[in-house]
Amino acid sequence: MTIAPSPTPARSLRRRILRRGPDPSDRDRAVLVLHDVTKQYPNGKVALRDVDLVIPEGDFVFLVGPSGAGKSTLIKLLIRDEVATRGDVVLDGQDLARLPRRQVPKMRRKIGIIFQDFKLLPTKTVWENVAFALEVTGHPRGQIRAAVDRVLAIVGLTAQAQQTPSQLSGGEQQRTAIARALVHDPRLIIADEPTGNLDPLISWEILQLLLRINELGVTVLMATHNADVVTALRKRVVALEEGRIIRDEVGGAYHRED
Amino acid sequence: MITFVVFSIRRAWQGFWRNAVMSLAATATMVLMLMLLAGFWIIQTGLLAGLEFTEQKVEVVAYLQPNVTESQVTALRGEVEAMPQVDAVVYVTRDDALVRFQESMQAQGREDLTQYLDSNPLYASLEVKLVDPAGIRVVGDALREDPAVRNVINIEDLVDRVLTVTNILRTAGTVLLIVVGVICLFIIVNTIRLAVFARAEEIEIMRLVGASDAFIRWPFVFEGAFVGFLGAVITLAVLAAAAEPLSGFMVEFFRVLPLQVGSLTRDLVALVMGAGVGLGVLGSWVSVRTYLIR
What is the pLDDT of residues A12-66, one digit of tens each? Predict the structure, then answer.
């Protein structure tokens, strides 16, 4: 199965050139900057060591690596579920370690997160699941209606709006989750194994959707084990192993090609 | 602010009905616990009233010398009434004593033996009601020292024993009520914790999409308050329905007690409502907190 990589907008292409190394001038343009980040858990396990990573706005990055390499820890640091033991995690110009607890929810609204297990509420319809993200962040109802309709159109679920997750296929459920992640107009979409539970055909469908969202200007960071997808798309690939970044290349494959 | 309150209440209402099984289980537990609490509270109130009634019966009777003069009696009476332990003093003359004796004999259907007597053999007495039965020794001793007093019936030891028993009962009742209260607290809080736990994923999603703590917490708190309110209303309805047959059964018992049904009902409604809503709110607050502190 082959799928042609979508044409890359000139804007992202320009940014891509700046990708390597934490050049201070990058910080302004970067959605995400990690500088010398180390994370040690209370039990002594070191999950990340001296990680440097800059993700410019509009980038599409694959985060790959074996289980236990530190991908989940990295994502937890980005949503400030955990705080780095050392180093800076700067999201959209804000240092997460210095962010007061009360500001964390506001920061999270700049991020849309997608999980392998979708995390949809089974008692709510597709429409309500997406609207939920806006309701619980205090948006007025009038605003919610328009925003939800818009993102459901983007992911192509307008017709399924009134169905509950149990009536949907896996791909449709993940598209609902993507719509929910998108409804806040996030700066960054973090997808944690979004295709882990889906068959190859549907996986490609989800990937195309993420690529399209990326084209709309949203930065995407996708952690995955799906080697076919990573190798075929030739996007930027960041590989983690034992808590270190061992490879960071544009147009990379899932495995090292020497 | 108003948007927030409306949002919280709407979400609480939705939350209650969308998780109907859990919510109704929590409400049922709430009802059972509140009934237990209300039952024990009624028993405790009855017990206290009974004890008070018993203690009110305690009085010091001082028999006076046969040759005592009216002015001596008045002086003694004034002296005794001035004591802080004394509530009231009733002077029973010899004639009064005779009448009482005759009446009590008649009431028991026995023959009036006094008709065979030439003169009244009874003594005049002062019946001293006490503010608190614990004061019996002081009052008794004071009366014994007065020359106008012939003798004072020694019931101090008996009263001491009665007081020991009533104090034990009072303490035991209070301790039992507190224990039942604590049991209710834990069971209700834990039931609500389970109901919240069943929705841990919902809370997690709220956190991930950037809901502030208040937006996560308050709908659950309102829902807890609603469970408590509903539980209290059901409990009170059941108690009201049961009150009629129960009071018919207990009327003889309660009539003699210094109880006011009006204030009893008011206190009971306040207790059940307060405990229901209070525990509901507390349970939700504590349960949601677990998910927020991270």
Answer: 433 433 344 444 444 457 899 999 999 999 999 999 999 999 999 999 999 999 9
What is the number of alpha carbons within 13 Å of residue A127 lying toward its C-beta? 12
Cα–Cα distance for residue pair A78/A72, rounded to 1 Å: 10
The answer to whether B210 contacts A107, with C-beta atoms less than 8 Å apart, is yes
ipTM for this model: 0.81
Kindly determine whether residue B201 and residue A138, on different chains, have CB atoms separated by under 8 Å.
no
Amino acid at A52: D
Tokens describing residue A48: 């990340």
Q: Report how far residue B60's alpha carbon sits from residue B46's, in angstroms, rounded to the nearest whole number.
A: 26
Q: What is the identity of the amino acid at A188?
A: L
The token pair that represents A177 in the structure block: 């989750």
Say which residue the tokens 């005759």 belong to. B102
Q: Which of B10, B209, B215 to mutate to test the interface with A (most CBs of A within 10 A)?
A: B209
Contacts of B3 in chain A (CB under 8 A): 138, 140
State residue A103 phi and psi, 5-degree precision.
-85, -10
Do residue A113 and residue B208 have CB atoms under 8 angstroms apart? yes
- Closest CA in chain B for residue A105: B210
- Which range (A23-27, A148-152, B34-38) has the least confidence? A23-27
**Are A59 and A15 in contact, with CB atoms under 8 Å apart?**
yes
What lies within 8 Å, CB to CB, of B208 at 6+ separation is A79, A108, A113, A119
Q: Distance (Å, rounded) from C-alpha A127 to C-alpha A131?
A: 6
Angle (deg, nearest 10), helices B213-255 and B20-56: 40
- For β-strands B59-64 and A94-95, DSSP reports them as unpaired
Residues A201/A41, Cβ–Cβ less than 8 Å: no
Please name each of the domains of chain B with its CATH number. 2-54+163-292 (no CATH), 59-153 (3.30.70.3040)
